[in-house]
Design brief:
The protein has 291 residues and is an all-alpha fold. α3 packs parallel to α5 and α5 packs across α14. The protein is built from 14 helices and no strands.
């Protein structure tokens, strides 16, 4: 293992700062666009999901793809109130993009690749949702509340502050996450060595997706930032990245455990989310390996 002296550490910090600062204008632009879409489409989207009935997983899978502030949290509230099924909620959780999309945009990832990833997440969310609803015979939970408040404050993202202010808050938070993670990654690469680190994280076709799924369970945007950055730095495989992003549901899981008092039901949903997301990632890696 290599020792890091003070001069090397300062260079690593400066490199991390420069790499992160370069992303700022692209992150800001991406979030402005996303906030605009959120303000224009959120009410209609939620109404469509409510009224979807047996086609709930289809509506949930499609709705989760679009960048909408706190939509996974809103879906958890709808589920807790018995308005949507477990399959619909899982479709939303699995398809939710969280911070992956702005990071990909800021890193100038090919638009076709981004669309393929979004499409795969939507389809996998739908298929899983329909399967779960079939197993549970399309049984929404009983109504627990007289009113369901699907508000963005559940995620404390500040969407009511206006498009530009909210975009600025999002940009600042994600910039700090990226900066901190870049510093840690630079130090690890220097200490361990890039080839050894990459071999540890990508040379395990089953363990990689399983670990990424655990990271995806972290109920905030940090998980998707870390997973996306690891993939962009070529430390994890495409399937491993997909596992983490599929399992990652943002603040949705927190809101679910806060609003739905049936803990066994919550733990069952959490287990299905983790197992399905990890299984999809393993399947992708196996297909990529053999074809």
């Amino acid at each position: 293992m290599i020792h890091i002296d003070m001069e090397t550490l300062i260079d690593l910090l400066l490199d991390a700062c420069m790499d992160s600062i370069k992303l700022l204008p692209f992150l800001m632009a991406a979030y402005v666009i996303m906030e605009y879409l959120e303000h224009k489409t959120s009410t209609k989207t939620r109404a469509i999901v409510r009224k979807a009935g047996r086609l709930g997983p289809l509506a949930g899978g499609l709705a989760g793809v679009f960048p909408q502030c706190g939509f996974s949290a809103a879906a958890s509230n709808l589920y807790a109130g018995g308005i949507i099924t477990m399959g619909t909620l899982l479709a939303v959780f699995l398809s939710t993009s969280d911070e992956m999309l702005p990071i990909f945009i800021s890193e100038a990832v090919d638009a076709r690749i981004v669309l393929v990833i979004l499409g795969m997440k939507a389809v996998m969310g739908m298929l899983t949702g329909f399967f779960v609803d079939f197993v549970f015979r399309f049984r929404p939970s009983p109504i627990r509340y007289k009113e369901i408040h699907t508000r963005c404050e559940s995620e404390h993202c500040g969407c009511d502050r206006g498009i530009f202010r909210s975009a600025l808050v999002h940009t600042a938070k994600i910039f700090l996450f990226i900066l901190l993670f870049t510093i840690i990654l630079n130090v690890l690469v220097t200490l361990i060595g890039e080839e050894r680190l990459a071999g540890f994280m990508s040379g395990r076709p089953l363990l990689g997706p399983a670990l990424a799924g655990i990271v995806g369970l972290i109920p905030n945007c940090a998980s998707s930032v870390v997973i996306t950055q690891l993939y962009l730095n070529e430390f994890i495989s495409f399937g491993t990245m997909m596992s983490g992003l599929l399992v990652g549901a943002g603040a949705g899981l927190l809101v679910l455990f806060q609003t739905n008092r049936r803990w066994k039901e919550n733990l069952l949903l959490l287990s299905i989310l983790y197992v399905s997301g990890t299984a999809w990632g393993i399947l992708i890696d196996l297909i990529s390996h053999y074809f």
